[in-house]
Amino acid sequence: MVLAAIFSIISTFVLSGVTWAIGMLIVLIIVFIGVFFDTIGVASTAANEKPFHAMASERLHGAKHAVLITRNADRFANFCNDVIGDISGIISGTASAYVVLQLSLQLGYSETSSQQFAISILFTSVVAALTVGGKALGKTFAIHYATPIIYQVGRLLYILEVKLKIKLFSANGKMKKKDKMTRK
């Protein structure tokens, strides 16, 4: 609920004061974010852990993070698909309605006119088609290319953790126990 409120406030703030064309571009970006995270979530459930162990043995950056993603695929996919993906879908619908209203008012149509209704149906249909079609393509892509997708996400998490000191994953307590044992 908090993430939805934050994203909604940000999208409303960004959309206020922009033209309808820029607003539609923002809506498309929001749709793309939803498709992107849905693809990553599906890839995490389709990925096999073994290739990442081989990569980790070769000390490839991000391989250990990819192992953590595949081990926690249920939670990772839940966050990507259900939290980010669904919130993006809701916000894109709301933002699309805002853009339709802006366009209708700019063209001189009232909120209850048949022209505004037609514009609303057209924009809503386009956003829905892009969302559903994009997610369908993303899921197909995620199933066929799960290993490279999750490895790239693992590399991104590695960069966030090592270079920027932003830790998004814990090592399930295993490293902490090992560290405690080696200190004695």
UniProtKB/TrEMBL annotation:
Transmembrane segments: 12-37, 87-105, 117-136
UniProtKB keywords: Membrane, Transmembrane, Transmembrane helix
Name assigned to this protein: CNNM transmembrane domain-containing protein
Species name: Halalkalibacter nanhaiisediminis
Lineage, uppermost ranks: Bacteria, Bacillati, Bacillota, Bacilli, Bacillales
